[in-house]
């Protein structure tokens, strides 16, 4: 039996329980060599298909990120920060960029589909890895629902030119005047079906949609700048720096998703080279477009105008041009943009669950790869239905803030992981290295903590309750089925000392 063959002890996990005490199990790290060797395999040994190049990876990252804040929560954020909303986007963008740099180093060194969950498992142990993975469930699944919720607003704008209006009871969630948000549910389910068909097909559809939404956002800016009024930026900080910070914490939701590229590590043709490039390139594209659109929107309308305004960008276009068809075309583009976010983030969620399932921390069904499709069909179906129900029944505001706090926590852990591996595994080959180490990852972690602190008390309560539920799930299932914990000490030491072969 080779050093990287799955030891018999791991196969018995779940039948005899873990071989370690709780304290040692929570601190046991998964060997990086084992992660790399297992990459691409499901729980039954079937392989994911390696078909992505740097273009598809970049578009997955941009698709999961670009559009969320601008299309969906801009109207909620401008009243918090005033004209300085573009500064809030910059602050959130810097925090995301610092973490993205750390993600780039980790993705090039550990090219697996688990994203920050896998990075944390390799550095901080099973306990923190589970917490990180549980946060990622919150980040990905809930953010998909949150983005999809905003689709109803833009679908209404799309059909308004035809004299049609979707009634609130099928286009709004409970608490917002409706019974369920049917458009949000339909979008999630359509993306679910596409992902079940195959990753390559999904990636090309996503790439086409991303290019469309970049074009329509640039079109918005071109129109908005024709009505630009510099006086709208005076006063710049009507709500003070506290308002800017609070808005930055909320719009950070707009940047989650760049890490979706790292979840494609097991389906990339050359992950060590292409993942870092895709992550960094996507952050440059997203931040530039966000700031440009925010400045154009404020320049076109006074910041007080945004309070209570739904589908703000469409309304600005309608008021400037007076042509309903322009608003309808833009609204259709916005629906496509929201769809690309849902598609890319839902993809990321299913791939993270593949990694967690492979480690035994969640049920095997999430890691089963279809022999015909080369995708986790069963896991995608389960996640898609759960997310669709959430999107149809839960209001946007509660989803957005809860997603941000889980994401910030996961990003902070990735920054810490970079520091840990630089200190303890300096010999590992890194296709990309964080600049200005250790200042960059330390600042990245501190920025994440700062933004978490600025989120409201209710958001923290939701987060803590989510963590409690996560601990119950871990002790009920993950603790007893963990494959890393079931390794005997000699097997574990052999795996930990094994050379890393990325091929």
TrEMBL record:
- What keywords appear on the UniProt entry? Membrane, Transmembrane, Transmembrane helix
- Membrane-spanning ranges: 54-74, 80-106, 127-155, 175-196, 208-230, 236-258, 279-300, 325-348, 377-398, 404-422, 434-453, 459-477
**Is Transmembrane helix a UniProt keyword of this protein?**
yes
Q: What is the topology of this protein in the membrane according to its UniProt annotation?
A: Multi-pass membrane protein
In which domain of life is the source organism classified?
Bacteria
Assign the protein's first listed, main location to one coarse class.
Answer: membrane
Q: Which InterPro entries match?
A: AA/rel_permease1 (IPR002293)
A Pfam family that this protein carries is AA_permease_2
Asked whether the UniProt record includes Endoplasmic reticulum among its keywords, one would answer no
Task: Give the region (Disordered) as residue ranges.
Answer: 1-22
Q: Where in the cell is it found?
A: Membrane
Among PANTHER family, the record links this protein to:
CATIONIC AMINO ACID TRANSPORT INTEGRAL MEMBRANE PROTEIN ROCE-RELATED, INNER MEMBRANE TRANSPORTER YGJI-RELATED
For this entry, the protein name equals APA family basic amino acid/polyamine antiporter
Q: Please give the organism.
A: Arthrobacter stackebrandtii
């Amino acid at each position: 039996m080779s050093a990287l063959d799955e030891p018999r002890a791991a196969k018995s996990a779940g039948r005899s329980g873990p071989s370690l005490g709780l304290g040692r199990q929570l601190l046991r790290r998964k060997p990086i060599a084992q992660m790399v060797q297992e990459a691409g395999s499901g729980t039954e040994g079937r392989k994911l298909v390696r078909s992505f190049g740097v273009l598809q990876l970049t578009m997955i990252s941009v698709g999961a990120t670009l559009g969320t804040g601008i299309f969906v929560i801009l109207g909620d954020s401008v009243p918090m920060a005033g004209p300085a909303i573009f500064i809030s986007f910059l602050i959130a963008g810097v925090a995301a960029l610092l973490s993205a740099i750390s993600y780039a180093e980790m993705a090039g060194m550990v090219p697996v589909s688990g994203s920050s969950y896998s990075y944390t498992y390799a550095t901080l142990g099973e306990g923190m890895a589970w917490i990180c993975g549980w946060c990622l469930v919150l980040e990905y699944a809930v953010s998909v629902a949150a983005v999809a919720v905003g689709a109803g607003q833009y679908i209404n704008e799309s059909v308004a030119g035809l004299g049609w209006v979707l009634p609130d009871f099928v286009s709004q969630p409970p608490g917002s005047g409706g019974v369920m948000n049917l458009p949000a549910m339909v979008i999630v389910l359509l993306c679910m079906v596409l992902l079940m068909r195959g990753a390559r097909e999904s990636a090309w559809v996503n790439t086409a949609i991303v290019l469309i939404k970049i074009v329509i956002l640039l079109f918005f800016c071109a129109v908005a700048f024709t009505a630009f009024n510099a006086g709208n930026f005076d006063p710049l900080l009507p709500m003070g720096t506290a308002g800017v910070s609070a808005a930055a914490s909320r719009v950070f939701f707009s940047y989650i998703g760049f890490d979706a590229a790292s979840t494609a590590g097991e389906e990339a043709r050359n992950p060590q080279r292409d993942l870092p490039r895709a992550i960094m390139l996507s952050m440059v594209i997203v931040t530039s477009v966000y700031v440009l659109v925010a400045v154009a929107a404020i320049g076109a309308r006074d910041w007080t105008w945004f309070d209570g305004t739904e589908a703000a960008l469409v309304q600005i276009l309608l008021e400037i041009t007076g042509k309903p068809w322009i608003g309808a075309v833009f609204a259709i583009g916005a629906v496509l943009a929201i769809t690309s976010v849902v598609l890319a983030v839902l993809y990321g969620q299913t791939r993270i669950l593949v990694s967690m399932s492979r480690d035994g921390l969640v049920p095997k069904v999430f890691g089963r790869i279809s022999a015909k499709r080369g995708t986790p069909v069963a896991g995608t179906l389960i996640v898609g239905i759960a997310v669709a129900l959430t999107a149809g029944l839960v209001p946007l505001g509660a989803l957005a803030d809860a997603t941000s706090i889980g994401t910030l926590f996961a990003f902070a852990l990735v920054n810490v992981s970079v520091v840990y591996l630089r200190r303890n595994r300096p010999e590992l080959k890194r296709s990309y290295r964080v600049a200005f180490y250790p200042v960059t990852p330390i600042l990245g972690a501190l920025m994440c903590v700062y933004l978490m602190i600025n989120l409201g008390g209710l958001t923290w309560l939701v987060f803590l309750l989510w963590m409690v539920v996560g601990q119950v799930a871990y002790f009920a299932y993950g603790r007893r089925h963990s494959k890393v914990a079931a390794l005997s000490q000699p097997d574990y030491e052999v795996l930990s000392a094994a050379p890393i072969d990325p091929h």
